[in-house]
């Protein structure tokens, strides 16, 4: 017998048209992907906030790069920005990640920033010098450069002013002298704040290996600690002496000189780095290699990039691949 019941148009739900069904399914797919993406983002942020990146080059050895006096400053990222702290050589947190900026430990103290001001802490995270400076750097030869009210000066480890805040620029002490800038020119002062060389140089850097690299009338040269010219102002570019030699630039080419100004490696290189562990990375005909202190090729010119040696190893790039080599050029 046929069912005589008729459909009630008031209670029966009509099926969605095909186009609307497709739109609804697309919306569900989009919503699912959106929820998954947001979830993944939150997970990544959570992991990032709780993840500490060990500095590049850390191998667990005393000479690992990135460490200073047993601590490495690292940056920890979170949803609200990043904070700095310090880890030990086992990767454990030694000083909490609560600082807005941080510099390496030097002479037992570290310069850190908190709430827009700089101060110093010791290895136990105790405040050694109050947070009252606008900018500052680590201690060197017992004094640290700091900025206050727009001028630079030097403080001692008790926080007392050692040299007044009167300079536009100030560099760290090296070999008993500090390079400072005043009235648009550079000169040097000693640890008592007494002027050692006149303020006549356009640019200058700290003393290195007994000589100071300075710029005058657009050319670079070197002066001694008393201010006398040791190497004439004839170079377009120059770096500090390292292992007795300095990289210099003349007529667009790079070479090396000794402390007497004598050319050791001729001006034939397109680019060059300072000597490190008796070798220097140099670029010739578009490729990088290494030379020794006599200017002889030590490792062939086959690399697209070559870094300096540290701990017997250097980072290089060849054929689109990065790897390390030893001082014989052997891939590690």
Chain-wise SSE layout:
Elements: H1 18-49, E1 67-68, E2 71-78, E3 81-87, E4 93-99, E5 101-106, E6 109-114, E7 117-121, E8 127-133, E9 135-140, E10 143-148, E11 151-155, E12 161-167, E13 169-170, E14 177-182, E15 185-190, E16 195-201, E17 203-208, E18 211-216, E19 219-223, E20 229-235, E21 237-238, E22 246-250, E23 253-257, E24 263-269, E25 271-272, E26 280-284, E27 287-291, E28 297-303, E29 305-306, E30 314-318, E31 321-325
Description:
- The chain has 332 residues and is mainly beta.
- The chain has a domain of 96 residues.
- The chain has one helix and 31 strands.
- The strands form eight sheets. The protein has a four-stranded antiparallel beta sheet with strand order 1-2-3-4.
- About 6% of the residues have low confidence.
Note the overall shape. globular
| Share of β-strand residues | over 45%
Average pLDDT taken over every residue: 87
Share in helix: under 10%
Question: In terms of per-residue confidence, which ranges show pLDDT below 50 for 5 or more consecutive residues?
Answer: 46-65
Task: Write out key terms for the chains shown.
332 residues; four-stranded antiparallel β-sheet; mainly beta
Quick recap of the structure?
The protein is mostly beta strands and 332 residues long. The protein has one helix spanning 18-49; strands at 67-68, 71-78, 81-87, 93-99, 101-106, 109-114, 117-121, 127-133, 135-140, 143-148, 151-155, 161-167, 169-170, 177-182, 185-190, 195-201, 203-208, 211-216, 219-223, 229-235, 237-238, 246-250, 253-257, 263-269, 271-272, 280-284, 287-291, 297-303, 305-306, 314-318, 321-325.
């Amino acid at each position: 017998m046929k069912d005589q019941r008729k459909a009630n148009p008031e209670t029966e739900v009509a099926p969605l048209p095909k186009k609307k069904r497709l739109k609804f399914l697309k919306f569900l797919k989009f919503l699912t992907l959106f929820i998954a993406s947001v979830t993944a983002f939150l997970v990544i942020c959570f992991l990032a906030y709780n993840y500490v990146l060990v500095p590049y080059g850390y191998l667990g050895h005393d000479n690992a790069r990135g460490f200073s006096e047993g601590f490495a400053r690292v940056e920890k990222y979170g949803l609200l920005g990043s904070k700095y702290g310090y880890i030990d050589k086992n990767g454990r947190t030694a000083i909490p990640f609560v600082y807005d900026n941080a510099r390496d430990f030097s002479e037992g103290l570290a310069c850190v920033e908190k709430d827009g001001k700089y101060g110093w802490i010791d290895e136990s995270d105790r405040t050694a010098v109050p947070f009252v400076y606008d900018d500052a750097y680590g201690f060197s030869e017992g004094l640290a450069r700091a900025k206050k009210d727009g001028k630079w000066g030097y403080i001692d480890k008790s926080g007392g002013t050692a040299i007044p805040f009167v300079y536009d620029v100030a560099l760290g002490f090296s070999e008993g002298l500090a390079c400072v800038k005043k009235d648009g020119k550079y000169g040097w002062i000693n640890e008592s704040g007494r002027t050692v060389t006149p303020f006549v140089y356009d640019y200058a850097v700290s003393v290195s290996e007994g000589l100071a690299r300075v710029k005058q009338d657009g050319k670079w040269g070197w002066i001694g600690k008393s201010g006398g010219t040791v190497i004439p102002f004839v170079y377009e570019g120059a770096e500090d002496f390292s292992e007795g030699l300095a990289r210099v630039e003349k007529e667009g080419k790079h070479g090396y000189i000794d402390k007497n100004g004598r050319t050791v490696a001729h001006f034939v290189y397109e680019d060059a780095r300072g000597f490190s562990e008796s070798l220097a990375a140099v670029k010739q005909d578009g490729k990088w290699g290494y030379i020794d202190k006599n200017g002889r090729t030590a490792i062939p010119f086959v690399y697209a990039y070559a870094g300096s040696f540290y701990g017997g190893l250097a980072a290089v790039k060849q054929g689109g691949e990065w790897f390390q080599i030893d001082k014989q050029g052997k891939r590690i």
